[in-house]
Amino acid sequence: MKKTMKTIASLVMMLVLLLGIGAPAYADGTVSYKGGAEKFVFLPGSGYTDTDLFDGFKGVMPGDTLTQTIEVRNRFLNTGSVRIYLRAVAHDEQANPLSPNVAAAGETVATMSDFLSQLYMEVWQGGTCIYTGTPDQLDGLKNNVLLASVPRFGSVTLTVKLQVPKELGNEYANRVGEVDWVFTAEELDPQGNPKTGDTSNLILWIVVMVVCLAAIAVVAFLVLKKKKQN
User: Per the structure, how many domains does the chain have?
Assistant: First the structure.
């Protein structure tokens, strides 16, 4: 039987570089797995996309080193623990184009990749570094990385560090970088095993089997009764 790999949803990491005066507003992000129609819910969102979590990476300056946390929560009431996985998906011109608002800001896949290649990023899950490098390189996140088995009402925290080089020039002012992160939740049964499909199908087969047995019993009874009458 197939494992139930519950919903896939994308999270867009936005990096906006403004060479100006003033500190950016800071807010940590949350990702809540709720199952059902809601699936994953991302907060806080931004003017670029509803799934943008990185308010702390807006309006950054050359020489900045910024840290932001992302709390991934299990808020699905119809299951116990869930395994949370993370992977990254590169942008291209066709299969995974840029978000409309990013494209409207004048970015192309080429210009955005050049911008992101100037930065340095680390992603930590607890004391484990799961990614290090420039945000345009996805080496460590091309495939699903298991973050944790998160119990109901529990959470796992990611810490993202961004470094902007001091020598970054004015040609990168007001630039936007977009990185797609894909979260996957795999629901587990109370024993910690992956769920195996819909139990309603099993109930249906049990009912059908009982009905068949009852029909066989009735047929056997009628046959025996007819033999006795003969």
Answer: 2
Nearest to 176 by CA among 95, 96, 101: 101
> Are 218 and 136 found together in one domain?
no
What is the reported pTM? Answer: 0.75
Pairing of the two strands 155-163 and 120-125: antiparallel
Determine, yes or no, domain membership for 193. no
For residues 62 and 23, membership in a common domain is answered with yes
Tell me how far apart the alpha carbons of residues 115 and 176 are, in angstroms, rounded to a whole number: 8
- Residue 224 shares a structural domain with residue 147: no
Per-residue pLDDT of the chain (230 residues; tens, 9 = 90+): 344 445 556 667 777 665 544 444 456 899 999 987 678 899 988 888 888 888 888 888 899 999 999 999 999 988 889 999 999 988 888 888 999 989 998 999 999 999 999 999 999 998 999 999 998 888 888 899 999 999 999 999 999 999 999 998 888 988 988 888 999 999 887 767 777 654 444 444 444 445 545 555 555 544 444 455 55
Same-domain check for residues 74 and 123: yes
Its domain, for residue 213, covers 198-230
Beta strand pairing call for 145-150 and 82-89:
antiparallel
CA dihedral 25, 73, 185, 16 (to 10 degrees): 0
